[in-house]
Amino acid sequence: MVGKFHELPARAESPPTLTEESVGEVENQQEEGDESSPLLQFLESNSEAVDALKSLLQQKLEVGEDEEALKILKKLVSAQPGQTEWKFLMARLLNEMGEIGKSRNVFEEILKVNPLSFEALFENALLMDRCGEGEAVIRRLEEALRIAEDEKKVKEARDVRLIMAQIQFLQKNVEEALRGYDDLAREDPNDFRPYFCKGMIYSLLDRNNEAREQFAKYRELSPKKFEVEGYLRSPLSRMKLFGTDEEN
């Protein structure tokens, strides 16, 4: 399970042991009506305990104990509200568990703080599209694009347009998606992402020569550690031609 998510935030070496029993024991001490449990109060002031809880979370994800992992994530979100990665992990885990509405709610929380978060916009857009909200997702992305343009955030505006092009493809508007990628490539020939996306589309259309050209350009321009696959490859590669983005 952990492989389906980004790496957990860095933790200290050899953290103290924290078991389910110790977590449950402290939680059971919580008095009814308290806003914060003793465990959360302890975590807020003890970084080693947080590191141990991260280790326990990773164990639960690795063995597929999603419900237990979700409980731990909720504690980490409460203990470290400024660590956005916990909310991303929670949203992705809820999605894997089939809790689409709850997953979207978490992404919306992230977007309230940062309405131009690329990951949150992209993953929330995929969920909206999966739920049949095709027109609504385009409006949502157009709103984000207006925010980026009004604030003169060029990079963020390009990111939103990249997402819009992929959503157009998922909605079977292939030519419009390709035009969007062409525009992005023409405006900034050094941005490798449009070439990758076009390569994926051409591959799915069995236009293999064109796909090879796009992938060659992508490899020429892309930095070694760019994790484009996490945001772009999976939703496309899991699709049969113009099918859904759900795995069979």
UniProtKB/TrEMBL annotation:
<dbReference type="Pfam" id="PF13174">
    <property type="entry name" value="TPR_6"/>
</dbReference>
<dbReference type="InterPro" id="IPR019734">
    <property type="entry name" value="TPR_rpt"/>
</dbReference>
<protein>
    <submittedName>
        <fullName>Uncharacterized protein</fullName>
    </submittedName>
</protein>
<feature type="compositionally biased region" description="Basic and acidic residues">
    <location>
        <begin position="1"/>
        <end position="10"/>
    </location>
</feature>
<keyword id="KW-0175">Coiled coil</keyword>
<feature type="coiled-coil region">
    <location>
        <begin position="131"/>
        <end position="187"/>
    </location>
</feature>
<feature type="compositionally biased region" description="Acidic residues">
    <location>
        <begin position="22"/>
        <end position="35"/>
    </location>
</feature>
<dbReference type="InterPro" id="IPR011990">
    <property type="entry name" value="TPR-like_helical_dom_sf"/>
</dbReference>
<feature type="region of interest" description="Disordered">
    <location>
        <begin position="1"/>
        <end position="38"/>
    </location>
</feature>
